Amino acid sequence: MDAVRVALLREVLAGTEWPGAARRFAGALRGAVEAQGGGLLLVGTEAYEPWHLAAHLDDEAAWSGLPALSPTLVRHRVPPAGPAHLGVGLGRLEAAGRGETLLVVAPDEPGEALLERVGDARRAGAAVLALDGGSAELPGLAHELLTVPGDSGDIDLETVQHLVSAAAGETGAPATAAARSGFRDRLARLAEVLSSPPPPRW
């Protein structure tokens, strides 16, 4: 999701808790990877792999000049013949420890095997953050948690991931109301230009 769509999404969600909650969580994520310095591990559940979040964080790392935000995607099932960057299995979590950050994305229950590995990583000194849909166990393991209940009608976990990844790459303060108004004006002018007929040939 590009910057314009993220800005529009924030406008739509203005007045709800989600833009602020996503910024706070993103700030904690950015702070953890910068403080820890050992890399970011990203893992989902057996039924859900956070591909989009991995791609967006990788983009934000490049655009913001914060390479520590670029994650290693940890997978529950690794195909035998695939690229190296997609060949990192759950065994990587067993080696996680001090200096590393682990981000868990769990729209459903993570499962005992994953929870055990996350707990081991935390005990070994890794910083643990989680985006979840209301897990019973993750709140006790995560240093920072953002829960998006499945029954919250105005937003879902996928949308929150877009807000978090965009905010993680932002190094400045959130835009003021005047700046947001200026952005809306510029966006309206751009829409007008794009929708107007082309000028006559000269």
What does this structure look like?
The chain is α/β, with parallel strands linked by helices and 202 residues long. Helices cover 45% and strands 12% of the residues. It has a five-stranded parallel beta sheet, with helices on both faces. It is globular, with a radius of gyration of 19 Å. The model is unreliable at 173-181 (pLDDT under 50).
Helices and strands in order:
Blueprint: H1 3-12, H2 18-36, E1 40-43, H3 51-64, E2 71-74, H4 91-94, E3 101-106, H5 112-123, E4 127-132, E5 144-147, H6 157-168, H7 177-195
Parallel strand pairs: 1-2, 1-3, 3-4, 4-5
The average pLDDT value, as a whole number, equals 82
* Number of helices, where a helix is a run of at least 4 consecutive DSSP H or I residues: 7
As a percent range, the share of strand residues is 5-15%
Strands of the biggest beta sheet: in what spatial order? 2-1-3-4-5
**Rg estimate, integer Å:** 19 Å
Query: Could you spell the SSE succession in H and E letters?
Result: HHEHEHEHEEHH
The share of residues in helices is: 40-55%
Biggest sheet layout: 5 strands, parallel
Based on secondary structure, the structural category is: alpha/beta
Distance between the termini: 38 Å
The best one-word shape is globular
Number of strands: 5
Low-confidence stretches: 173-181
Features:
202 residues; alpha/beta; 5 strands
Briefly say what this structure is.
This protein has 202 residues and is an alpha/beta fold.
